[in-house]
Amino acid sequence: MITLVLIGLLGGLITAVSPCILPVLPVVFLAGGPGGPSGGAGAGPPNRREPSTEVPSGDGDGAAVAQGDVLIAGRESAPRPKVRNRRPYAVVIGLVLSFSFFTLLGVTIISALGLPDDILRYVGLVLLILIGLGLVFPPVERLLEKPFARIPQRQVNKEGSAFVLGLGLGLLYVPCAGPVLAAITVAGARGELNLGIVALTVSFAVGTALPLLVFALAGRRVAERIGAFRKRARKLRIVAGCLMMALALALAFNVTDAIQRSLPDYTSAAQKKIEDSDVARQKLSGLYDDSNKELSRCEDGVDELRSCGQAPAIAGISKWLNTPGGQPVDLKKERGKVVLIDFWTYSCINCQRSLPHIEAWNRAYKSAGLEIIGVHSPEFAFEKNASNVADQARKLGVTYPVALDNKLTTWDNYRNRFWPAKYLIDAKGTVRYFKFGEGQYAQTEDLIRTLLKQANPSVQLPPKTDQKDNQLTKGRTPETYLSNLRISGYVGDPLLSDKAKVYRFASDIPVNRLSLDGTWTAGYQYFTAGDSARLAFTYRAKNVNLVLAGKGTVTVLVDGRTMKTIPVTGTPTLYKLVDEKTARTAHLELRVTPGIQAYSFTFG
Questions:
Q1: Cα distance between residue 393 and residue 440, in whole Å
Q2: Staple 162 to which of 90, 185, 351, 589, CB 3.0 to 4.6 Å?
Q3: pLDDT tens digits, residue range 570-595?
Q4: Which phi and psi angles does 195 have, rounded to 5°?
């Protein structure tokens, strides 16, 4: 459970600094500023003035009052302590509660009440507009604060509108989707809730909230410290209100998407390292059973074609777009063609950035035998609305068939966990490659061309559409999974699945190949060491890492020389076996004590 919470927290922190959060930042920053109609914490009754940073002018009995004094019926009373502006906390708490609750239960509630799928989005937009009106017109703000009037603490009452703003932002909050958010969304969509999913959701929401809270506190500090803000608090509130209403309109008409698409996805590498690590994959794997596990023979983005089992069916589709008469596309009838399946959802900025590449491939290779199918697997309830998807597909230039996978049936069939994700299927219906996330477009296009040539050797292919990707260093040993179905480059005695067996090293272990010696149990997720267990690997890289779990030691030898002995304890953790300044080809040998679990090698 602790590991799951840490994964959610780190995933949320990474998400909170991604381009997807940019639209809400100005609102969060300004929300931490002036708190009441006159710039203080809130609007008091007409015969009493709350503490204020402004210096009002008197025209008779009441002279100028210093900050912190209270003026009642023209007489100066004892100074009162300055009321702390807690609006930043109210906004962020509202956002966390709203996002967590409606991500997990929104679909269930909407279905039970028979409400439109996009009702929550419209509620959020209305709340944002009301808050904006409240900042411009104080009576509207007082109306929004009325539900909090019975709370005894006066200052809490004053932050009511800020809390409502947080609730509204939580409904409009569309963070970049990674495996953590995918796991939360899928569980919520099915109503499969348990303590682990709730802990993952709350920790993810808290992780995203912490940077937003820092931003809101910065807005409060600016408003409190800079004289121009104090003197013009009323004008600042009007500007903030207008900005919130403008944001609501921009979100309603998807104007913010264009801004987000123009920015690079600078957090994708960190997100993948945390959320798609072996530890995270193991913790989030409860969403998947053993069906179609042959897909695990493929690895994300490797520069080669593999045989990863028959392509699962496209099933559970509520509607098809861009097909004659809305007829479904049957994969079995596509035999003889190369098929690219792209899992996407229209509010996902990463998906939007990948669509131009996919559409370019559709134009270039459709006549050569490529069939592209977009599987729209919604992240949020409002993305289930068929007219919304059709409208956004048209605006984004999607012309190939799109299947609306509202029940996430096809998502499950492909054991998917990313938006976007691309799966390549050959002319015989076998999955040969997949790529999670953005990037590696040139490599993916090369593999499309290879499969088209294999399907029809006489086909004349047009020039490539995209040559912009920078390829990885050539010759580096690829990531290698110690899994009875996913392992590549193994030489030696045949593997025996899920049972202990005594192995002997192969007589020759070429580069990028590994072999076993002693007793090992080859499982689906990891290999478990037994008596006299050893592992040999000829690699080319600067450094070698291995995910290990259990309790014991691993002795590392390179080219026959003992380098170190690593103590291993606890849950799956990445251990650095070799770390050198330059890449070279070397022979690695590991001597592993019984009970140690080995998951996957990575090389740098």
A1: 23
A2: 90
A3: 766 668 899 888 889 999 999 999 99
A4: -60, -40
